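From the pipeline queue, job 12 of 40. The input is one protein chain; the requested action is below.

Action: predict structure.
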Amino acid sequence: MKSIKIKGSERESVGKKATKALRNAGKVPCVVYGGEKPLHFSADELSFRDLVYTPAAHTAKIDLGGTKIRAIMQDIQFHPVTDNILHIDFYQLFDDKEVTLNIPVRLQGNSPGVRNGGRLLFRKRKLAIKALPDKLPDFFDIDISKLKIGDNITVESLLNDDFEILHPDTTVVVQVKTQRAAVVVDDEDEEGEEGEVTAEGGDAPEAASEGGESQE
């Protein structure tokens, strides 16, 4: 999994005045948990851009001068009006200790079911997994090029010895449901037709999510 470098400095004072001064200076107060004791530090808000404002899951390499820590972002608080980052909690990673993280799902290919008038339902845009830090995947890439009307892809098809997926095997990740205008054609008739679903790292225009995104 890709790591984002965060260069900061340890905080000697964690009181309200010191925290306010940091924010006024364009810095974000942070805490790293999971070690022997919580570690307080701060870094420029711009340092977190590639970590926070992305659909991808990344780890962080926090450089505090003499101290270097590998961690994942656990919680983040934004200002309700300005959307500035107010505070970030991190959890320290250890090579021999499993961690839980939400991994994004990407759709690859074009669904013949959608081309025939079906409706693509992207039910799980993220999946929670437990794994050792070095086994964390960047994405779950799902090929929908054979997904016809009535078909679905479940968690069971994504199982891997490198990690544990924290959802039942029968959980539907993506499916194609029928619509009134949908038609069923043979495989031979589908060749040469243009797909309506774009994937390759993006969601299809026809994609609809029922029940919202998973935030487990």
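Job complete. The CA atoms of residues 113 and 149 lie 4 Å apart.
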